[in-house]
Design a protein that fits this description.
The chain is an alpha+beta fold and 750 residues long. Helices cover 35% and strands 17% of the residues. A hairpin with a 2-residue loop joins strand 12 and strand 13. Keywords: Aspartyl protease, Endonuclease, Hydrolase, Nuclease, Nucleotidyltransferase, Protease, RNA-directed DNA polymerase, Transferase. One of its GO terms (molecular function) is nucleic acid binding.
Length: 750
């Protein structure tokens, strides 16, 4: 080993302590010597920073946008203690060769002393690179998704966690990029020679560099996971574990990288890594971090509440009830930050005081954290189960894995292991969705957000307690023509997946039902009893017909009178013309919102000028000459009240109800019946009663004066006398009419 003698003794002593801890964690005592030889074989360990050269990884080049000019800050003042600490700190960096004074630098970002978290009260130096970062062309890279990459650690029994000492300082900066990372203190401008934390691409560059060298050594994902400066090493057997350690350490030494000895675990079966506990049978969140959240006092500011909800929300995929329990706290935070910039500094100045309900919710979130579930990563051989449910207020998703699947056993009696859970509330327009759309939404939500779990060769089992979805989302390549609108688009998204969909009763769909119904708390409603409530419509209906003799086209004088008489606030971008009219920057006349008669006359001209134009054509014609606020809304409302358009273009399309499509196998098995309104045909008959056999499509039409149950009953009895009574009557008429119809038939057949 090539360290100085004092460092060498300290490092050897520390490694001996770590090896003893490894034996205590389950490493075989008889192989302790082999572990010692592996860790001592390579010069990669450091206790503190030293004058080691930068790593052998290619120096990083920071690329700026074209035309970028140097950015410099103004001098800052510091407290005496901070000034002394920063002076000593930067002098130590200069002695190591990591920074140098640069009086000719055109760049300078402010350096600030920041207090370290915890009770020690130490300081660290942070450089504010926000302004230079806005001018940098970012590297096209991304961090790995731990939700997918942690699958590689499943069933691995032997693990080690290490981290790099002063990770960014080990990476060299290219000569052309050093000056742009300069920072200013009271003692002058200093230019670093190493990669700086806070620079826009520093984390991505370090991550990609570590992944590159591990990939070249055939270690990445096979035996090593990297998250910036944290490494997770894993293997199946002790022999493989020692061999992997030798390969990892050799790779690090080859590239001139060093590991710290403070945050390291040489051997463990349950590794604490990236806030999680990696076990052989699953992944749980770190109990120490959870306990830290549980021990937090009640928040006194919006910033404290925001930090608590963010930390708890990070673990929500293991908290079945999180959306419902945290709903009062989320609402309280939204109310407290309403109208602000929602930044941490602003939230820190907003004081909050919990109500009894919010205080109860705060305690319930802590209870959930204490009972967070352990998540498993499913194998390709496991059966994946997706259960969804929705209520009036919210939705829930539960994904489980079944290792020993028995097709003959009920889904409720299988041995489930939790993979992922989600829940949420319906907000905005989603609150007014139909029942089928609300029940379908969690399925599409799971397909969109959990595709990394559901896209698999073996497929998955989808269970829903809404029977209609079984037919709407039934697997198949064809487009279901009887499904329209939102549900049709959603069903197409499922075509790319391999799955089976089955119905599960509401009593058995316990977990998903709980997550959906607990996703929102219904607030108590205050009701008032009144004897009678009357409203009076104050809106005056403007009747205009362009073909009337007294009809007049709008003139400039009419527009000017409307502008002078208005009480509405005039938009700021309008300009007054010499003739007294107000126009916008596109030279269009301004039409006030309260000029209803004038606006209606313009609508009539735009709509009836050439036949009856549609909404979009109307808007284009009016926008060409007039400035009208909320024009699209007004044009749609006008067209919806046009009586001629209702007759010519038809009314609102009423889709068939979502339900099972009945198919007959023999004649007269099912009879379809419905009334068709045809208008005033011959002075008496306004309706046609349509009766159709389901198999042969044979139809009979009966004219009648009104749509009533008595006429339908006589028609069915006449059908019975000729063809026999059908087994099933299918109709979408009102329930009370069908009940009266069956009552009349029963009376006649006695």
């Amino acid at each position: 080993m090539s360290f100085d003698p004092p460092d060498k003794k300290q490092i050897i002593a520390r490694l001996c302590e770590l090896i003893n801890e490894a034996v205590a964690n389950g490493f075989p005592a008889e192989r302790k010597r082999e572990l010692f030889e592996v860790v001592m074989r390579y010069d990669i360990w450091r206790i503190a920073i030293g004058n080691d050269p930068p790593s052998k990884i290619e120096p990083f080049i920071i690329q700026f946008k074209e035309g970028t000019l140097p950015i410099r800050c103004r001098p800052r003042t510091y407290a005496p203690a901070e000034r002394e600490w920063m002076k000593e700190f930067n002098e130590s960096l200069a002695k190591l060769g990591w920074v140098y004074r640069n009086e000719a630098s055109r760049w300078a970002s402010p350096a600030r002393p920041v207090k370290k978290p915890g009770k020690t009260g130490g300081l660290r130096q942070a450089v504010d690179f926000r302004r230079p970062n806005t001018q940098v062309l970012s590297v096209a890279g991304s961090m790995p998704s731990l939700s997918t990459r942690l699958h590689h650690t499943k069933n691995k029994k032997h693990r080690q966690t290490v981290d790099f000492l002063k990770s960014f300082w080990q990476m060299a900066l290219a000569k052309v990029s050093k000056e742009s990372q300069s920072y200013m203190t009271e003692d002058g401008v200093l230019t670093p020679t190493r990669l700086q934390q806070g620079s826009v691409d520093s984390s991505i560059h370090f991550q990609q560099s570590i992944e590159k060298i591990m990939r070249e050594a055939n270690l990445l994902y096979e035996h090593v996971l990297a998250w910036i400066d944290d490494l997770l090493i894993y293997a199946d057997t002790i022999d493989e574990f020692l061999s992997v350690l030798d390969r990892v350490y050799c790779t690090l030494e080859k590239n001139g990288l060093f590991l710290g000895l403070n945050k390291i675990c040489l051997y463990t079966t349950e590794a604490k890594w990236c806030g999680r506990i990696i076990k052989e049978d699953g992944i749980a969140y770190d109990h120490e971090k959870i306990q830290t959240l549980i021990d937090l006092p009640e928040p006194k500011t919006a910033a404290e509440l925001q930090q608590f909800l963010c930390a708890a929300g990070w673990m929500r995929n293991a908290l079945v009830d999180f959306a419902r329990v945290a709903a009062p706290l989320q609402a309280r935070l939204q109310t407290a930050l309403e109208g602000t910039k929602r930044t941490k500094h602003v939230a820190a100045r907003v004081a909050i005081d919990f109500t009894a309900e919010e205080r109860k919710s705060f305690g319930q979130v802590k209870q959930l954290l204490a009972k967070s579930a352990t998540l498993v990563t499913p194998d390709d051989s496991d059966e994946l189960i997706l259960m969804t449910d929705a209520s009036e207020a919210g939705w829930g998703i539960i994904v489980t894995a079944v290792e020993d699947w028995d097709p003959a056993t009920s889904i409720t009696k299988q041995q489930h292991q939790l993979v992922h859970c989600m829940s949420g509330t319906f907000k905005g327009a989603a609150q007014h969705w139909s029942v089928s759309e609300k029940e379908a939404f969690p399925i599409i939500k799971a397909v969109t957000d959990l595709d990394y779990l559901l896209i698999r060769s073996k497929g998955f089992h989808l269970y829903s307690d809404h029977r209609n979805l079984i037919f709407i989302f039934a697997p198949g390549d064809e487009i279901k023509k009887h499904v329209r609108g939102k549900l049709q688009r959603w069903s197409l998204k499922l075509n790319e997946l391999r799955y089976t969909i089955e119905h599960i009763s509401g009593e058995d769909n316990v977990w998903a039902d709980m997550a959906s119904r607990w996703a929102c708390i219904e607030l108590p409603r205050e009701t008032t009893t009144v004897n009678r409530w009357q409203t009076q419509d104050t809106h005056v209906q403007v009747e205009l017909r362009p073909l009337r003799p007294d009809s007049e086209w709008p003139t400039e004088d009419d527009i000017k009178c409307a502008q002078l008489a208005t009480t509405c606030t005039r938009p700021l971008h309008l300009e007054e013309q010499p003739n007294g009219l107000w126009r916008d920057e596109q030279n269009r006349w301004w039409i006030p919102e309260d000029a209803e008669v004038l606006l209606m006359r313009l609508m009539v001209i735009a709509h009836c000028g050439t036949s009856h134009r549609g909404v979009k054509v109307m808007i284009n014609h009016l926008q060409e000459h007039f400035h009208i606020e909320k024009l699209e809304t007004k044009a749609r409302a006008f067209c919806s009240r046009c009586l001629l358009c209702c007759h010519v273009k038809g009314g609102k399309i009423i889709p068939r109800p979502w339900g099972e499509t009945y198919r007959s196998n023999e004649r007269n098995e099912a009879l379809h019946m419905d009334y068709l309104f045809i208008g005033d045909y011959n002075g008496e008959s306004n309706y046609l009663l349509v009766m159709k056999d389901d198999v042969s499509h044979y139809c009979e039409l009966i004219e009648c004066s009104s749509a009533n149950a008595a006429t339908a009953a006589m028609a069915i009895l006449d059908w019975n006398s000729r063809y026999g009574m059908p087994q099933l009557l299918i109709s979408d008429t009102a329930t009370h009419l069908k009940n009266q119809l069956l009552g009349n038939c029963a009376t006649k057949l006695r």
